[in-house]
């Protein structure tokens, strides 16, 4: 009996122990991740992503550097091409007043012609006159005269639509003597053109072959203008010319001497009149006799009888015909336009 009780007690103890084991925490599931392993995996992934990002940055940086290098190379090539283009000489063909053709190289250092050829058109109200159709410039019509036109009716000139006049005040004769002469109608023309309401300038026909002769011409011009009693509106223009015959004493003048003469004349006018002096020119003179520094230093009254000005260089006034018909002037007359930049 005692043995039986012990056996039963042991059995109960085993049962109770089994029941107690069932109520304790279960083992972890195989599918549940290990926290330590998971943290390690996340760290490795982040490091891999970081390395990939750095590699991409390096690739982008290399591509950017290559792009910048390409841009610099392209810019250098463009600059080089532009420099080569600038260094290529530009030539133009032109015809002079005697109908002879020439080829000249354009000097890029001289201020360029700012006008558009297609904007020079015949004036519908007077087909012999040329005007300029452009919003940038206003065109005034004018004349230039000397004693060769005789007595002029300036009131009639003014009423015919002409706004300004260049009047010859003197000249130096041809030949070895080169005598200085005052234009016999100079004072009368200066006064009466001014009284008629025209804007007035003056010019001197030069045959000077030295600076001293150019100064003498300027002194005579200043004397006539002062003695006329008027105040000029336009400059005194230095008009050096050569001729097609042997009488022209300045026919063999050098470019360097032309520069010296121009500076001597213009500076003397400035001293005597406290007034501006500019230059008269045509394309043969710009081609062969006026240096770039002269062309850039003065306003230019340009002569050319072609339908449009042939010059590649700047000018302010254009003498476009010497065969015009102007009421108040007997015989053929020089007609000019003045291109005034609008404000």
Brief characterization of the structure:
The protein is of the alpha/beta class and 343 residues long. It has eight helices and 13 strands.
Characterize the structure shown.
The protein is an alpha/beta fold and 343 residues long. The chain has helices at residues 2-23, 35-87, 154-159, 186-195, 211-228, 255-273, 283-288, 292-297, and strands at residues 91-95, 101-105, 120-123, 126-132, 137-145, 164-172, 180-182, 199-206, 236-240, 277-281, 300-303, 317-324, 333-341. It has a domain at 110-341: Glycosidases (TIM Barrel). 41% of the residues lie in helices and 24% in strands. The chain is elongated, with a radius of gyration of 47 Å. Mean pLDDT is 86; it is low at 1-5, 12-16 and 20-33.
Label this structure with key terms.
343 residues, 8 helices, elongated, two-stranded antiparallel sheet, alpha/beta, disordered N terminus
